[in-house]
Amino acid sequence: MRLANLAGRAVLLQDGRALDVERASDGRFGPDPMTPWADWAAFTEWAAGVDYANAEGYDESDLGAPIPFPRQVFAIGLNYKDHADEAEMAYPENIVVFTKYQSSLAGPTAEVKVPGETLDWEAELVVVVGEQIHDVDEDAAQAAIAGYSVGQDFSERTVQRRPPAPQFSLGKSFPAFGPFGPAVVTPNEIEDPANLSITCVIEGPTGLAQSNGAGAWTAQDGNTKDMIFSSARILSDLSKVVTLYPGDIVFTGTPAGVGMPQGIALQPGDVVTTTIEGLGALRNPMV
Fold first, then answer.
1. What residue stretches are annotated with the Fumarylacetoacetase-like C-terminal domain (predicted)?
2. What is the pTM of this model?
3. Domains of the chain
């Protein structure tokens, strides 16, 4: 199942078409994209037998954040060995956690206003929680995963690093700094979430400059198998402190290739395409 938000309505995507949830369920589930998370188990049971005959074509520009108003948004830092290496930092023994504020969430084609001269990119796997959990082990955490999505953790590094103490959450929460989608993809649709290619390609002025005029520059080319903490470990560790709720989302960290260590930043005219194998892609213009 691929659950998405099309022009503010919950839909299921299949083969380039969208099925409206409210209409297909005869009103059992409402049109609000948050409705499925009120009873995820019942929703998935219904969706498993749904008929896509009435699905229709759609415009990708109408896709919004699949979960526009999660209760909680978590993000994990330094979760890929090669990214820790490029940051010249030791591999963490415990998860490094911050948040991206809810207002930073956006859809897969959202425009991003460049707020300064140090705008960076971070391609990330997003994990979505499907049931309420607290203080659970990794097996229970794995069972609580509703699905996965593609995320981009845009970061304004000057704000993030300004004194007297780092402002991670503020530097990463300008409008549209947390695009994700195009859908929440359930685990049964993915062969191995722990072995997915993840890339970030930049076109425009930055892409031209870094590709010697070729036009598109692959800034990041990684794989989720290189994560230090697995998705289940992350949810389990989070649950030792907080209660996780259905629809909560977790940005799980980024592989090597971000701009800051290279002295490279995004600028207006750039287009950032973030792709994860089997999950889809985001394509976000910088304005």
1. 73-286
2. 0.97
3. 1-58 (no CATH), 64-285 (3.90.850.10)
